[in-house]
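Regression test case RT-17, inverse folding.

Input:
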């Protein structure tokens, strides 16, 4: 059974930083496409950052230069380092793993106050 468990969300002031973690069990991160998405009420879930299976990285224009996606294959954990946070970054953040199927974490709330 594949499980993705997120942690690290919370409340932070604008300009602050947070690091989200996503621990994966039952599947292997290495060599697979992973990503972070976010969603706000009434809007579609949007891609924030991804590492493709071939190793290339992708970032949404709105987070380029501020967010960094990474993974630790030994710990089977992915991360999203978020710096210079803005109120517009407020959302529920989800991690995703593509391993045959698409697997999602349960989501973690990030709230950035102005």
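Golden output:
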């Amino acid at each position: 059974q594949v499980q993705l468990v997120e942690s690290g969300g919370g409340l932070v002031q604008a300009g602050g930083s947070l690091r989200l973690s996503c621990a994966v069990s039952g599947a292997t991160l290495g060599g697979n496409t992973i990503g972070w998405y976010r969603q706000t009420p009434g809007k579609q879930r949007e891609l924030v950052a991804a590492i493709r299976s071939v190793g290339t990285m992708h970032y949404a224009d709105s987070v380029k230069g501020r967010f960094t996606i990474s993974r630790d294959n030994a710990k089977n954990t992915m991360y999203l380092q978020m710096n210079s946070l803005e109120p517009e970054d407020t959302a529920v953040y989800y991690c995703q793993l593509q391993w045959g199927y698409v697997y999602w974490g349960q989501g973690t709330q990030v709230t950035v106050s102005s």
